[in-house]
Specification:
The structure is a homodimer. By secondary structure, chain A is an alpha/beta fold. Chain A has two domains: about 5-60, 2,3-Dihydroxybiphenyl 1,2-Dioxygenase, domain 1, CATH 3.10.180; about 75-125, 2,3-Dihydroxybiphenyl 1,2-Dioxygenase, domain 1, CATH 3.10.180.10. Chain A is built from three helices and eight strands; from the N terminus they run E-H-E-E-H-E-E-H-E-E-E. Chain A has helices at about 15-25, 55-60, 80-95, and strands at about 5-10, 40, 45-50, 65-70, 70-75, 95-105, 110-115, 120-125. A four-stranded mixed sheet of chain A has the order 5-8-7-6. In chain A, a hairpin with a 5-residue loop joins strand 7 (about 110-115) and strand 8. The longest helix of chain A is centred in the middle third of the chain and has 13 residues, at about 80-95. The two termini of chain A are about 25 Å apart. The relative contact order of chain A is 0.17. At the A-B interface, strand 1, strand 2, helix 2, strand 4 and strand 5 of A face strand 1, strand 2, helix 2, strand 4 and strand 5 of B. Strand 1 of chain A pairs antiparallel with strand 5 of chain B.
Chain lengths: ~140, ~140
């Protein structure tokens, strides 16, 4: 089984609100195959999907009930502290809730967190030990 | 803000159990920079991180309380129905809980779901409309 995540699907309470946040707010592009039931966004070698939460639970054969922290965070890494600051300011203007203002981290990096309209936490991080390649993808150190 | 997910972090109740499942069970490789507090796995242009759940909530400045479906699913796409079946059999032997046995889907594909030790749902899917590139990454259609 190859190590691979192909899709991250966020179960959302209102697809219109979520689409507005990610596409109009963050400026990301809904793929042409998106429709009124699902939105697909190419996020660099994998797909971010937005889908109604109860439909997603039904698809996965799990109970839809759930509350509080879902246990998963997503991170958007950038190349410098200044880019972390600029990105947090950008998402603040896109109506994101800022969970944590940018600050130095215990592991030697610098990061802030925001929440999307459904409360999913995104970290915006600069990690000096993880260089980004030409496509902006993180590269884990070999040692 | 570039469309990019750099890291998906799963908040886990027991890092040893989660590491055993993903590394010994699924056969994925912990990066050398992993340690007793965190595991990093290269999953193809992004990183899957395993981190203790309450520490993750603390890092994101959210309350750790939460129960039930967390609202996010991950998908692992493969190239055929037979590969879906084989992958579900593989993870079943790795002690995954099978949430949904492989079956044809309403959208014209074929998929099953399993849960990892913390209950996070993974879909194993074949999508005839999303070809995989040489690296196994999904390619969204241009139309």
């Amino acid at each position: 089984m190859q190590p691979r995540i192909s899709v991250v699907t966020l179960g959302v309470s209102d697809l219109g609100v979520a689409r507005k946040f990610y596409c109009d707010g963050l400026g990301w592009t809904a793929a042409p195959s998106s429709n009124q039931h699902v939105v697909f966004i190419d996020v660099g070698a994998l797909v971010l999907a937005l889908f109604e939460r109860s439909d997603l639970a039904k698809d996965a054969h799990v109970r839809a009930d759930g509350q509080g922290f879902g246990g998963i965070t997503l991170a958007h890494n950038v190349g410098s502290k200044a880019e972390v600051d600029a990105t947090i300011e950008f998402v603040r203007k896109a109506s994101a809730t800022i969970l944590k203002e940018p600050a130095d981290t215990f592991w030697g990096g610098y990061s802030g967190y925001f929440a999307d309209p459904d409360g999913y936490p995104w970290e915006v991080a600069w990690n000096p030990f993880w260089p980004l390649d030409a496509n902006g993808r993180v590269q884990l150190p070999k040692f």
